[in-house]
């Protein structure tokens, strides 16, 4: 019997819906495509404003957080630090977010805008500028704001509030404990289905591009289905192997390799293409994007009816596509972003990938337009509608085109694998409610389902129907994402006030009555032995006196002793709210060489100075208590206990004082 971590309330409904939609798309592809396309077109034509306003709100909200007081809040405990290097972090989120898409549309989108009838009456220079402008718009800040919002919400609630890494957790400030029930399951089922459909369709189209490239290089004779089966079999197998090794190994390694290859291909085209034109067009294009940012953001083309079909087929389709992908990409970004500050997260997710996309679209798209205008005499424009082969035909205009084409196929293959392995990883995480460790057969199951359904849909022509289904799901999820903003604002506001809460006015400040004794302590040698002695005598006695007095008032207080480092805790345990903890431990810090060499300063050991540091159960900033007398230490503990009782008595602080913290500590 197989061991399983799959949650039945999520897995079974998801599988029923996924298989039902997929079977209909396979058996009745034309009918399914027709029906779903009608629904999609109705949404795009009549409700496109929902997408426009939603994406606008996402951008405004993230920019607000970037410059707000909340930017310094860490996605985790206040003392947590990132698990991955900055380069690996950027590489992984980029590979999961837009890897295959850039390879597929890097040349195709600018060329299709350039040849579009919407811009047909304008001079070719203006057409080229518009092609670059709208490529920037569709692949820039707005797209990454969609991913960033979901990733930020998930990271915050999972790592800051110790909730499961699940979309349901993003509603905790609004739904409280209801997120653990049926409502939470519905949200996760939606996320799982959306993720599965998005990855299946993208991988299906990725296989077609790989097959087309291999045919272009005469590695395979044609693009028949048998070769697509072989491609999917090999690549999904690699994806499963990568997913089994985990984020820290396979996914990170492949992402790092691919970013290096992508930058190499980018520099290759930049150096051997129309370099001066590209640098100039990037500069002008960036300025054009900044100047038109608000017009693009709020634009609906309502006054230009001739442009409306183009608007639906490009801008609205892109917003729907990014939104439908955001549960998957957001979950993966959150998985690798623990320990970052909100400001660091937004800059890295919003600005850096957008800037790279601008460079990519300029180098590949503008190079293709330049070749088309000056060398090809319209040859690339003639095949702009065939994006599967367009990239490879574009590379024919460059030296060493065969090598560049091989590199392109290798990049697409690795992007394929990284998208699939991170997708498998995320889907298993959703279906298991973020189980710490799952059996390997579950990873193989997700990989097998992706491969089989992608191939069946490719063979039957049902990918477009599934793509329409994916785009339709974006409408309700855009509303869900707006609620994420409400939920995050509520939580961040409470977070800020929670950690900024000062002591009550009833507490007694430190007096100068014992200033002579304190001066002796200041100039005394602060070695580990003396600090350990301080904790073992004065602190222990203070805690013992407190324990006795708490017991006299009907409260059980425990004293916990630890070694290496030496520390002692006064803990009051609770069943519903988190425990009250006041602890003191020996800690050290490096000191300046100036302090070591200065004769007219207290003697300092070269290894550093040691201090008794007070710490608390909620990761607030600790501080030095070496100058406290026993009674002052008792008073300080009571200050924190008074603050604790004041906070837990307020209903709005429930998310910070839940028993989740106790479970983690135990």
From TrEMBL:
Give TM regions.
Answer: 9-28, 48-67, 87-107, 141-161, 182-205, 225-247, 259-282, 316-334, 346-371, 403-431, 443-463, 469-492
The GO cellular component terms are:
plasma membrane
* Membrane topology, record value: Multi-pass membrane protein
Q: Identify the InterPro entries for this entry.
A: BCCT_CS, BCCT_transptr
Matching Pfam families:
BCCT
* Compartments it resides in: Cell membrane
What is the name listed in the Swiss-Prot or TrEMBL entry for this protein? Answer: BCCT family transporter
